[in-house]
Amino acid sequence: MAAGRLDVAERLLGELDPDQLDSAERAVWLNNRACALLARGTDPQGALALSEQASLLRPDVPALMHTRGMALLGVGRVDDAIAVFDNMRIGGELAPRLEADRCRDLATAWERKGQAAYASDYRMRADAHGR
Question: In the chain, pLDDT over 90 holds for what percent of residues?
Fold first, then answer.
């Protein structure tokens, strides 16, 4: 997934039996399936369902929260997405790449709400975190 090789990632994910995975592994599997759907832009509602299952298994993992926020944004639930993105930092600072992604997605969300100043601020924050 991280390398952008969706076909390979989806094939490998399809080879795994999620029922044979422990809860942490299953959360990652669900999250990666959701990311694939979001990357393809084909089924944001399906991505949301998968990401919500992953978040229920591991609500403490910011990267899973991020996927859920992106899926919420994908289905047009902008306010809910903003809340999820804001809550990602409850546990502390995020890794620079994840923080940049979070800020970029917050910029998109605020832009959709017609709040150009907030969007601009979050784009600058994303740039400051190296992305």
Answer: 69
